[in-house]
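Kindly review this protein for my students:
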Amino acid sequence: MLDLAIKGGTVVTPWGSGLWDVGIIGEKIVNVSLPGSINEESHRILDASGKIVVPGGIEPHAHISAPIMGHDERTAPPEDVSRASIFGGTTSILDFAIQYPGISIEQALAERHQEWTGKSYADYSHHLMLLGEIPDRIMGGLHEFIEEGFATVKIFTTNIRPPEMAGEPRMVKMGHLHDLMETIHRTGAMLMVHSEDDDMVQHMYEKLARNENTEWWNMHLVHSNESEDVSFRRVIRVSEWTGSPVYFVHVSANEGLLAVREARSKGMPIYGETLHNYCCFNADNYKEEFGMKYHTYPSLKSESDRQSLWRGLVDYGLSTVATDEYCTNWNLKIEGKKVSDVTGGHNGIETRMGVTYSEGVSRQKMSLERFVEVTSSNAAKIMGMYPQKGVIAPGSDADIVLIDPSFDKNLEMSDFHISDYSIWEGFHAQGWPVTTILRGTIVVEDRKLVDDRKLGRLVKRKIASTVLNRPVC
């Protein structure tokens, strides 16, 4: 007997889309078959007529209960963020265990376990984040945690802010980057890179200060197209020397997209992520009153860059759409007024799936299969969760989302479930997640939370060798 059967919807699978039925027993999908072919009795039949049935979304890049640069506060906790993510159709979240100087990776992971265990509505896992100069003991012991199931490591090639505002040094210099890439290649991990040229970034902070042009709407002059271009290409060159795979987080400019495309055309395992706010806003939005609300590091770029990012998602070049989730309240978000002190990040985890469907599928004719790739399956593959996650297929976790393509309205604050503001207020949605299933349990139905239990679990990960050796996503 099936615990749950989903019938009547257009189901998106790796083999295409069709009017199929999905059978679930316990936490797993057990069959995907032609309408009417599931003859077993079902404890519950979910009518998906008129809906698009897709794998639960995977958020590959989120900062949950994380220190906020320049403040003593932290971003929103797992309970708040995961609840919003479930409403928005995202069933798995990856955040960061930060190895600060003076603590071990083991301590960083223990802090994350304490922060997340029993507190999440969504499944979750943790990337390792290494800051500044990487000690030999950390480099030498990295393999233990990769083998344990934490198969992704993030670094920065910039300190992001000027020294007096940056806090803990973040930048990993090229020598350490080379050594880390050799370790990544040897241990079967994925290297995630926040890639900007720090010399250029710091030079522009100083130049704008000398010229008294430090207003926040000049942010794109600091975190520039040229900086992204130069840094991406340096990192890719070291990847060629070491064989390390690279996942570039938050690609924001056409130059970054071109660098990724060129590397992939050579058969290199290079992957690019962009953010849905980068795809929907541009640097002109900074000039609005309270326009700092749009800022996520590196920065919004030109309208031409915005359009290029959509082409990278709809057609080719970019593998995933993420949020860089960094949820604060409104007062904190608008407190900074200068390029040196604006708070980055936004509360986008709830809107990621719906905005990508509305703009990508409804307005830019992205295929349903490509929509699933950029919101779920590619992240699952690159981060080592596939095929447990990211696919509607027998044996996979029954993480499933129903999208209503007839949903058509301008979003209001009452549509959101986190924080006291949203840059997506007023966005015209054409298609939106309405029902979310986590491992076989219906958690949100018809946009209402119907199961208030925090069912989220830690997911250990191992990345397939094909993903690490060539650009398969």
Remarks:
- DSSP finds 15 helices and 19 strands in the chain.
